[in-house]
Amino acid sequence: MFTQPDLQELLSFDSGESHVLSLYLNADIGQETRDAVRLRVRNLLKEVGSEHEQDAQAIERYFDHSHDWSKPGLAIFACSKQNFLRIYPTAVAFRNRVRSQPTFYLKPLAHLLDHYAHYGVVMIDRVGARFFEYHLGDIQVMGGTMGEDIHKVKTGRGSSAVGMRGGAEGGRQEAEAIQRNMRDTAEATAEFFKNKPIRRLFIGGTAENVANFRDQLPRQLQACIADTFAMDMDASESEVRAITLTLLTKANAKREAQLVNDMITVAAKNGNAVTGLAPTLHAAYEGRIQTLIISDGYRAPGYEYEGSGYLSPDLVLDTPEAAGDPHEVPDVVEAAVTRTLNHGGHVEVISENETLEQAGRIGAILRY
């Protein structure tokens, strides 16, 4: 399981004069065979050349003897000259890519942490609920609660149908029992998620049960609701995970579109936002970025100044920031990602957003 301390270790890793290897994979054997995945790994490793021969050997040994093929995603970070190898299987697949550069390539991991970190699911019916906490697509904790048996209320105390035992009184008792269960379940839900840092909540069940239940939830949890869905209370955990990952992708796409629009609007009003490569790099240098927003796949060469750490897409002369000797950086976008994460900011990697493309493929929401 990849964690925030793991990210900090990768961010702070000092490779000395060596280049480090970053490898991301879609290793889903539901889509292709193990041999096909191994062949793709070998072909990707050939792209980075003989400099990473020992890294490649270590990675191939891992696939031969240790890899857990139940996970569809894989992120590998290696530097054989520093005896460093970190391998993180994930429940979410990556796009296949390899990088050899002075620092680890972390945009895909930042994307994973932003999209799939800590979300909750509640499966609700009239009697009780099941609770799920997920992180990066992996189940963390499950729980549940059961209330008053509605079926017993109906048969033992009467039906709401006219002419049957209990009549309207039985129907009233049934409705009251359902409401009690909903209140009790809402309290149990709040207790289950109380110390869990969930950012989004999904609720599954019939439309009627979901509506009744969400009205009983505390406002803090209501604000986390990202979507609802119809599913039987007895669905398997794998079914719950599959549908909520799909819903999570949709929810993130909607949130991303709004985030890009907000950034561009604020930047146009000269507020705390910028768009375009040069202004964003300047903000990264100053440590002002709260949220860095990048088009997926965007890379750009540039310069970093040895004396100050200043980042620029072009050579800059005679400015206070550009102190020291400039050296070429193959990807200043990745440098901005590293700088932002080191300053406690967030990174959003966004696919297929034409508005962001037209704004220069990069921008940021600033702290000040």
Q: Can you describe this structure?
A:
The protein is built from twelve helices and 16 strands. A five-stranded mixed β-sheet has the order 7-6-5-8-9. It has a four-stranded antiparallel β-sheet with strand order 3-2-1-4, covered by helices on one side. The protein has a four-stranded mixed β-sheet with strand order 10-16-11-15, sandwiched between helices. β5 and β6 form a beta hairpin. α10 runs parallel beside α11. About 4% of the residues have low confidence.
> How many H/I helices?
12
- Please state the oligomeric state of the protein chains shown: single chain
Low-confidence stretches: 152-165
Structural class category: alpha+beta
Span between termini: 34 Å
What order do the helices and strands follow? Answer: HEHHEEEHEEEHHEHHEHEHEEEEHEHE
Overall 3D form:
globular
Radius of gyration: 26 Å
Instruction: Profile the largest sheet.
Output: 5 strands, mixed
Number of strands: 16
Helix content, binned percent:
40-55%
Report the mean per-residue pLDDT as an integer.
Answer: 90
- What fraction of residues sit in β-strands? 15-25%
Order of strands across the main sheet: 7-6-5-8-9
Features:
single chain, 368 residues, alpha+beta, five-stranded mixed β-sheet, 12 helices, 24% strand
In short:
This protein has 12 helices and 16 strands.
